[in-house]
User: What shape does this take?
Amino acid sequence: MPEDSFQGTVVDTVPASNVFLVIGIPGSGKSSVSEELARRFPLGAHIEGDHVQDLIVSGGHLPSPEEDREADRQLLLRARNATVLARSFHAAGVVPVIDDVVVRRAHLTFYQEHMKDLPLRLIVLAPTPETAGNRIAARDKKLADDWAFLDEALRSELEGEGTWIDSTHLTLTETVDKILGAG
Assistant: This one.
């Protein structure tokens, strides 16, 4: 193959129809739902907030209940980088599906401001905190046992935003079907 085989290749095409932001507390099913949702499109990409955070290999600060300004800064950096990827995929005709733990108004507003000119569809996965806790316990991830405080923040600060789905009694397929039917 000649060296110039990429010359003239256009990366950006007709923009994708949607950009999805799937949010909820840990254990709400964001990653599983987002991956399955992205697979439903001819061209779909799953952008996992945790994986974006993992790109920081030195000096990373994860969010915690204690005040940590550096963790807050990195949380917004992670959101900004996820939106940069989403913009790139969207421009290339690939439907991006971002998943992230977003429970505070300021965090959601940050995402919305960075994607204000995109066809954003906000999906809030809101199973009961007990269901989320059971899902976490069934995985290898070691996280706090009680996420009720995050659920309370999500419900009080983000009420009325986006499409809310209580996936407590829904299968993965039923949840994704519900998202696609809500459009």
